[in-house]
């Protein structure tokens, strides 16, 4: 029981005010409550489960650096997608839409937290000889409870800020997280002036394409 409580508290206080809460907040403004909670839970269980497995068997079969780059690209894609204007039909939500939202949240939290301090904390606790199952339960619950604060704030904001504005704010947040993740994970020898300039141009061109696409959609409304 001591292992479970200490694991919970370590993660809970470590993640307070971290990007985890902001991600939960953003998703809470876009998806239904049960989709966000289920998605976060699945993503964190798999993420911390991987950490516990790696720590338990002392393996190093996964390249965290590459996965962090994938996470950065994924955040950028989520960000750009947030700026795309769509004509939505709220009358019906098919099963694909439901599970698409859950999968998106789960994947985002799974990859986004790879190599993060919470995953490393989970591994470190197991290295001290603690029960890996209790560590997994404690750290997962800690992340879920921290995320709940973000979800509550997201649900409060959702009814007070226009949906399109909220999507744009979430887009800016995702793009910021993506750039931050890439700047920390891409090897320094590749962060040259030419490469960063090319990256900036690609991002600007993407936003320009989205702008013209949105203009076309508005004409058809």
UniProtKB/TrEMBL annotation:
<dbReference type="Pfam" id="PF01169">
    <property type="entry name" value="GDT1"/>
</dbReference>
<feature type="transmembrane region" description="Helical">
    <location>
        <begin position="33"/>
        <end position="58"/>
    </location>
</feature>
<protein>
    <recommendedName>
        <fullName>GDT1 family protein</fullName>
    </recommendedName>
</protein>
<dbReference type="InterPro" id="IPR001727">
    <property type="entry name" value="GDT1-like"/>
</dbReference>
<comment type="similarity">
    <text>Belongs to the GDT1 family.</text>
</comment>
<keyword id="KW-1133">Transmembrane helix</keyword>
<keyword id="KW-0472">Membrane</keyword>
<dbReference type="GO" id="GO:0016020">
    <property type="term" value="C:membrane"/>
</dbReference>
<feature type="transmembrane region" description="Helical">
    <location>
        <begin position="189"/>
        <end position="212"/>
    </location>
</feature>
<keyword id="KW-0812">Transmembrane</keyword>
<feature type="transmembrane region" description="Helical">
    <location>
        <begin position="65"/>
        <end position="85"/>
    </location>
</feature>
<feature type="transmembrane region" description="Helical">
    <location>
        <begin position="133"/>
        <end position="153"/>
    </location>
</feature>
<dbReference type="GO" id="GO:0046873">
    <property type="term" value="F:metal ion transmembrane transporter activity"/>
</dbReference>
<feature type="transmembrane region" description="Helical">
    <location>
        <begin position="165"/>
        <end position="183"/>
    </location>
</feature>
